[in-house]
Write a structure and sequence with these properties.
mainly alpha
């Protein structure tokens, strides 16, 4: 007897069958992921340095602004790279 989880997974696979990725697509996706991580890390280093300076000055407003900017930048980079990844997944090789 199958569990409800197994039944749900069967239904999902019928509705949206998984696509097979080529080795080139997998490599391109991995490259995009590392590029995204590098961009985020670079931005974090820059903004965290600015955040430390703002904290040392006691400027809570600037600190909060930089924190919000960091969150926004992360989301923006993620969305951009997710879009690029979807294009790679949609390619026919």
């Amino acid at each position: 007897m199958k569990t409800s989880y197994e039944l749900a997974m069967e239904r999902l696979s019928k509705d949206a069958p998984g696509t097979k990725l080529t080795d080139a697509q997998k490599k391109e996706l991995a490259d995009l992921e590392s590029q995204c991580a590098a961009k985020i890390a670079e931005r974090e280093l820059l903004l965290k340095d600015e955040m430390v300076k703002a904290a040392e000055k006691g400027d809570a407003e600037a600190y909060e602004q930089l924190e919000k900017q960091l969150v926004s930048d992360r989301k923006s980079f993620r969305a951009d790279f997710d879009e690029k990844k979807e294009k790679v997944r949609g390619k026919k090789n």
